[in-house]
Amino acid sequence: MKDLWTVKYRPSNLDEVLGNEESIDMIRRLVRSRNLPHLVLHGPENTGKSSTAFAMAHEIYGEDYQRNFTYFNASDFFEQGKRYLVRDKRFLRIIGTDDPSKITKSVISIFKEIINEYASMGPIDADFKIIFIDNVEAFNSDSQHALRRIMEKYTNTCRFVLSTTQPSKLIAPLRSRGLQLFFRHVSVDKLAVFIRQVADNENLSIADDGIDALGYHANGNVAKALHTLQMVSLQFQDSVIGAQEIYDCTLKERSENITHLLQAAISKDIIEARKAIDDLILEDGMSGQEILLQLHAMTASCNESDATIAGWIIKISDADLCMTDASNERIQLEALVAGFCQ
Fold first, then answer.
1. Model-level pTM?
2. Per the count of CB atoms within 10 A, which of 28, 129, 317, 322 is most buried?
3. Which residues of 22-46 are buried (b: 16+ CB within 10 A; e: fewer)?
4. d(C-alpha 222, C-alpha 229), whole Å
5. CA nearest 329: which of 264, 282, 270, 269?
6. How far apart are CA 11 and CA 7, in angstroms?
7. DSSP label of 126
8. SS3 of residue 237 by DSSP
9. What is the number of H-type helices and E-type strands within the chain?
10. Distance set, CA 159 to CA 74, 126, 153, 203, 322 (Å)
11. DSSP H or E stretch at residue 291
């Protein structure tokens, strides 16, 4: 089975990180000064926050970076709960069982115990260790206050790197404990150069219009571009990849629930629209921003008048802006549907 290209082409050092030059340059200077503070990396999904954290650890600690680098995903703790805890063998000693029904402690208390224990462990052949927590917005207020206290307690031997797509969900004391760095999607030009390099490395023949179509589809999202290019390469082997091949592949990525949502919104059927939102979030597992991106793509290519399409896109853009600072994506999606009905 072929490796996922999102893993295969993950940067191994800071120089290989694509885009976000200002944030990467700041991290590079902090690494060289050997005076790394706590960090809060924030920005849209798939903008390189996690890749940067791993590349930074690799640059600080070398090939054996995992000895001083620990990764947690906050959404695993609080969305999957005890089922996740028993699957991760790192926690077996702490919880004492592999049966979730036998866990008597709350997830919050177990989280506090796990983070506290890992933070209290001294670094190995280094001045400090790094604990990277992704999707930290999934922590509730109590967990965030506990994390803030742990960060303060072990600041001499442990650095925390927090990653989030919704910084507004973080309590102010937690945000203030780290240097905040913003990440954005890469420019179209840089993504095009990267796509060409990957295609050459994989011995793919890709036309200029194929690169343009892939760049338009990915919209600066490197992971999305890599995933789509790999899917196209498997579907159209030994063919020159052009815009039509990209279009044929990406058309299949669109969820039927997106069509259901747009049709319900246009027909002013709020009940059906809410059902479609539930299906997109619960069944398809899509985030609010992913839903907005697919809605944008569908409205931009529909057969309505230019004025109507422009009005819909403005509403979607307003929802995207509100979602950046909102604590509940579903509320913003329902507000968008209500706006369509006006």
1. 0.74
2. 129
3. ebbeebbebeeeeebebbbbbbbeb
4. 10
5. 282
6. 9
7. S
8. coil
9. 18, 5
10. 17, 12, 11, 41, 32
11. helix 288-300
pLDDT band for position 1 (cuts 50, 70, 90): very low
Q: What percent of the chain has pLDDT over 70?
A: 93
Average pLDDT of the residues in 32-61: 91
**Phi, psi dihedrals of residue 241, rounded to the nearest 5°:** -85, 115
Beta-strand runs (E) in 30-155? 39-42, 69-73, 129-134
Spatial CA neighbour of 289 closest among 41, 47, 100, 57: 47
Residue 29 reports pLDDT greater than 70: yes
Percent of the chain at pLDDT > 90 equals 27
All structural domains of the chain, each given as residue ranges with its CATH number in brackets, are 5-182 (3.40.50.300), 188-251 (1.10.8.60), 256-340 (1.20.272.10)
pLDDT of 159 over the 90 cut: yes
Backbone angles phi, psi at 11, to 5 degrees: -65, 140
DSSP labels, 3-59: PPHHHHT--SSGGG--S-HHHHHHHHHHHHHT----EEEE-STTSSHHHHHHHHHHH
Could you tell me if 68 and 61 are in contact, meaning their C-beta atoms sit under 8 angstroms apart?
yes
Q: Give the Cα separation of 86 and 116 in Å (integer).
A: 19
Beta sheet of 158-164, edge-to-edge order: 69-73, 129-134, 158-164, 39-42, 179-182
* Residue 329 burial (10 A CB sphere; 0-12, 13-18, 19+): buried
- pLDDT score at 185: 92
CB 108 within 8 A of CB 142: yes
Question: In sequence order, which residues have a C-beta less than 8 Å from that of residue 107 and are 6 or more positions away?
Answer: 77, 78, 81, 82, 85
